[in-house]
Amino acid sequence: MQSTAFRAMGTDVELFVDDWLTGPELSSLACQLEASIRRYERIFSRFDPASHLSRLNRQAGWWVTVPAELYEVLKLAAHWFEQTRGYFDPFIGEDMRRIGYSVSFDRLDVTVEPVLASRRVPPVIPPIEFRPDCTVRLQPGYEVDLGGIAKGFIVARCAEELRAQGLRNFALSAGGDVLVTSDAEPWPVRVANPFGGAEPVGTLYVKQGGVATSGTYKRRWQTPTGRVMHHLIDPFTGLPADTDVVSVSVCADELTTAEVLAKVALLLGAERGTPYLCAAREAGICSSFLLATTKGAVIPCN
């Protein structure tokens, strides 16, 4: 097994390869992979004022031409907004800024007390319109934060590029997102322990597909008055979600699907999130999941 790693998208990006490669071949692939991710960051980052997403947010109310990749993910996000009845809501960018998460997590200023009073009016339908020529119009009063679904899209696209380079057995990981391609046995994807232990809380096995994890235990900070904040916003309150689930990992054919299901289940909480994922599994939308609660319970379904 060979591997390479670098920092991008505010997280560690790791490539594990079970195909035989020479050192120069692996280095070349790593350089191409990093260049691809940097290109996607210039499209999707809400922290980069020059990104295409930031430009769209600044021009709410106007028709804006966007790159095909951003157009595709925006349409996918609007679709999942409708499918989840607003529980998956990428139109919360203003609330992310309001709670202080307006820069990448490693640059977060925890000495400033955030504004907690939200004026958010949850949209009933996606507050964005599409034309066939890659132009979109975001309604005034909303900002897009594609977050995990964009990261899942980027990892999946980069995996396609790696397959085009001839790789057949590899895993590409970016934070809580892992995409596996294997011509042989399924690969074990170990789920990080959200309670701080070194041992994983479980393992999901993947041959072709992705595992996404959504959790409140990593991107978490404390305000000067002692209030604990995290980055997962309840779209109906505009505040960090008050949930008894600390981590959800979902395995699905599409990494973006796993991303959405994991986030929605976390927002729903254990009592409603577990049957939600079970129903998704029965419908063939996902293949397995693992849910960890704040009480230390781990609920697996393989």
UniProtKB/TrEMBL annotation:
Its EC number is 2.7.1.180. It is an enzyme of class 2 (transferase). Mg(2+) binds at G148. This is FAD:protein FMN transferase. It catalyses: L-threonyl-[protein] + FAD = FMN-L-threonyl-[protein] + AMP + H(+). Keywords: FAD, Flavoprotein, Lipoprotein, Magnesium, Metal-binding, Transferase. It holds the Pfam family ApbE. InterPro entries: ApbE (IPR024932), ApbE-like_sf (IPR003374). Belongs to the ApbE family. Its cofactor is Mg(2+); Mn(2+). Magnesium. Can also use manganese. PANTHER family: FAD:PROTEIN FMN TRANSFERASE, THIAMINE BIOSYNTHESIS LIPOPROTEIN APBE. It comes from Alicyclobacillus acidocaldarius (strain Tc-4-1) (Bacillus acidocaldarius). One of its GO terms (molecular function) is transferase activity.
